[in-house]
Amino acid sequence: MCKRKEHFTMERYLLGHLLNYNDEKGQMLSDDQIADNVIGVLFEAQDITASVLTWIHKYLQDDHKLLEAIKVEKMGVYEANEGGNMPLTWGRTDPNQNTGICIQNSCVMAAEDLVPMLSSFKTFLGRAWREYSRTVFLQTYLDLLVDPTGWLEWKGNFALHTLHYREYKNLGPGGSTIGRVKWGSYHAITSATEASKFTVQNFIAGKSCSMATGIPFLFGLDD
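Structure for Pectinesterase 2, as requested:
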């Protein structure tokens, strides 16, 4: 709260509104009052969410037609995603937007119950969903389920020359880039300097925002 007060601006989120709130006498809330309000909202939100989920569950059990309609819609989404084998995609409408998906030091593997059926499906690292979509895999283990081409078009040649798909030193039977797509916008990164742009330290300014999460991570490349 102290840091927020140092930059006294109207913010469109809860803490910002509380910090800038003035009562009828023109007095601002104390730190204790702000803390009480935030804690109250958190507990209320938790109770409301639990209550809503409980009632949704009840209504779905009572209305079998609605439940079946939801199941049909869910299956439609699943089938449109080709059996769940298409990855989540990240789209950008402007090439200058500093956003994207970066997967580092991770594993892309099939669940145990899907291993016997790997030959029946194709799985890809990304799909050309928007003009400037950006996805980068770095130093990640890619298992056999990953198709040798690696990436999939969306509709014909749409966005194949404007998107930003990259790989850097991935491992495993699916990690080879020899059979990858030949799009002009896809490249296998060979420079550690270029690859480091997509690490926690550089891509999301990790040193300033990731320390407090408690989640283990690498600042840079795992070399």
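Helices lie at 2-6, 14-19, 31-62, 64-80, 192-195, 200-203, 206-209.
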